[in-house]
From TrEMBL:
InterPro entries, sorted: AAA+_ATPase, ABC_ATPase_HisP-typ, ABC_transporter-like_ATP-bd, ABC_transporter-like_CS, MetN_ABC_transporter-like, P-loop_NTPase
Membrane topology annotation: Peripheral membrane protein
Superkingdom classification of source: Bacteria
Signal peptide: none
Family: Belongs to the ABC transporter superfamily.
Domain ABC transporter: 1-242
CDD domains membership: ABC_HisP_GlnQ
Organism listed in the record: [Bacteroides] pectinophilus ATCC 43243
UniProt-listed PROSITE patterns: ABC_TRANSPORTER_1, ABC_TRANSPORTER_2
Keyword hit for Translocase: no
Protein name (database record): ABC transporter domain-containing protein
MF term (GO), any: ATP hydrolysis activity
């Protein structure tokens, strides 16, 4: 994304954000509450429209900047562009009235129009991968928060995305449950899944991210390797933030 701006009324939430993510890269976004991290992810994943700036996936324009406004591609083009990425939220956002299996297979079958048997077989493999083998008939309310988040990750993976976005995936979870989810995300990173992760888990960001971005007040204050940003922050704002949360 390039020169992205977004306001809600008088409130300028994103002030000229440019961000490029390479294939296979793991980018961690950290920063105080209200700094615009979720809005950035929502703009990047087309859940929210940008006011100004451009957005490109794999050379395909989702939006271009035209006369200081973002002009979006057609519905059909955006539909195709959405195939590039999956999204995992803080509160799992599973469909409560769908079984685990249906949560995972619904979009591949109905949006991607893939063969149901093939998708079902793949969903069972994905459930094993996330540590929930055999739970396909369960409903979200029968699962713990950590298990629901594992289903959400399996659901995102079932679309065969090129990249995954995570918005504070462990913020609603207990510490010991968090560790399991972080381990799963670390495994995805080792498999070279491209990921953008908004997180407060600083040690996870230090160990897993290729690049760390510190946001504050709608701008990228500082970015670089974990060693640069977390261990040797240049900005006083970054230093103050890290001191507060560690
Ligand atoms: P973060 O994820 O870093 O905590 P957000 O992107 O959620 O920050 O929010 C940034 C600012 O934008 C906050 O002040 C928030 O209240 C405001 N905001 C976010 N979404 C909306 C919205 N839909 N309408 C009005 N204000 C919003
Ligand atoms: Mg947020």
């Amino acid at each position: 994304m390039s020169h992205v701006k977004k306001s809600f009324g008088e409130l300028d939430v994103l002030k000229d954000i440019s961000l490029n993510v390479e294939e296979g890269e793991v980018v961690a976004i950290i920063g105080p509450s209200g700094s615009g991290k979720s809005t950035l992810l929502r703009c990047a994943t087309l859940l929210e429209t940008m006011d100004e700036g451009s957005l490109t996936y794999c050379g395909q324009n989702a939006a271009v900047n035209e006369n200081g406004r973002s002009r979006y591609a057609s519905k059909k083009e955006l539909h195709d562009i959405k195939e590039n990425f999956g999204l995992v939220f803080q509160n799992f956002n599973l469909f409560p009235h769908y079984s685990v299996l249906k949560n995972i297979t619904d979009a591949p079958v109905h949006v991607q129009k893939r063969d149901r048997d093939e998708v079902t077989a793949e969903a069972k493999k994905l459930l094993a991968k996330v540590g929930l083998e055999g739970r396909e008939s369960s409903y979200p309310w029968q699962l713990s928060g950590g298990q629901q988040q594992r289903v959400a990750i399996a659901r995102a993976l079932a679309m065969n995305p090129k990249m995954l976005f995570f918005d504070e995936p462990t913020s609603a979870l207990d510490p010991e449950i968090t560790a399991g989810i972080l381990k799963l995300m670390r495994q995805l990173a080792s498999e070279k899944m491209t990921m953008v992760i908004v997180t407060h888990e600083i040690s996870f960001a230090r160990n897993v991210a290729d690049r760390v971005i510190f946001m504050d007040g709608g701008v990228i204050v500082e970015e670089g390797t974990p060693e640069d940003v977390i261990d040797n922050p240049k900005s006083e704002r970054t230093r103050a933030f890290l001191q507060k949360i560690e």
